[in-house]
Amino acid sequence: MATSAKTEVSQPVRASAAGKAHYPFWFGGSASCFAAGVTHPLDLVKVRLQTRGPGAPTSMLGTFAHVVKNNGILGLYSGLSASVLRQLTYSTTRFGIYEELKSYFTASGQPPGTLTLVGMACTSGFIGGIAGNPADVMNVRMQSDAALPPSQRRNYKHAFQGLVQMTRAEGPASLFRGVWPNSTRAVLMTASQLASYDTFKGLCIDNFGMSDNLLTHFTASFLAGFVATTVCSPVDVIKTRVMSASPTESAGHSILGLLREISRKEGLGWAFRGWVPSFIRLGPHTIATFLFLEEHKKIYRKLKGVPEGQHA
């Protein structure tokens, strides 16, 4: 009797352990925060290049040198608090919703196809773009502030103080300045980054016989970073211009009007301005994010007793 009872109790435990792991919602945001700490200087240089004025350095190395010369090494981490806040809102939301949808569609045992992954990524990216917009506005402003003339600088001390000051001076609507290009970028970013990572990872394992290990994660995330940078570049430039503009500069300008003005002044090359620093930043950021995310998942599976090979 005792042996029979023990068997009945242990069976559900083994079945649960053998099931697919359901990961916490916040894993993507946590991994993105770690990645942001590594790649923030590259993100700052990208923003400076996209918003540069007359006489400003036009190369990535020149911008690095200019920042260090005028603001010191710590100047490369200007706006880090806003960057972390952005990851806590934007990335937590988009990764969390994407993983929830992926778990739902994998419940039948058949992994979702590429088109389904893209659809899930677009949905989660759009919601994440809206959730993270206030922090994104602050991130762009804090990174570009030191490049402005002293009389035009906002001098935010940190992200939360900046959000309060911006709301008081420009109204609550300023928190969602550029929300549509930002949400569009978030859709493109999430679809080209998350969906392509899962697709490339599947190709590496299923078609090239690679194991689910660090090399596979690195390869898939590198390719995903390349795709994401190229797809998002035009929208990223527009988003940066809109968010960094003062109320006077943005008054009376629609997105289409801004597009016409940029194209007239700078030609079609504006769409990929800052592509190299964007890739140099987004490539390592994408790699770091997914490597940290995979480690989060690996540790979680060990703690939950989920066997390797039975995770989503």
Automatic annotation (TrEMBL):
Solcar repeat ranges per the UniProt record: 19-104, 112-203, 212-299
GO cellular component: mitochondrial inner membrane
GO aspect biological process, one term: transmembrane transport
Alphabetically ordered keywords of this record: Membrane, Mitochondrion, Mitochondrion inner membrane, Repeat, Transmembrane, Transmembrane helix, Transport
Subcellular localization(s) per the UniProt record: Mitochondrion inner membrane
Top-level division of the source organism's lineage: Eukaryota
Membrane topology: Multi-pass membrane protein
PROSITE patterns, per the entry: PROKAR_LIPOPROTEIN (PS51257), SOLCAR (PS50920)
Primary location group: mitochondrion
Family listed: Belongs to the mitochondrial carrier (TC 2.A.29) family.
Protein name, entry field: Mitochondrial thiamine pyrophosphate carrier 1
Source taxonomy: Eukaryota, Fungi, Dikarya, Ascomycota, Pezizomycotina
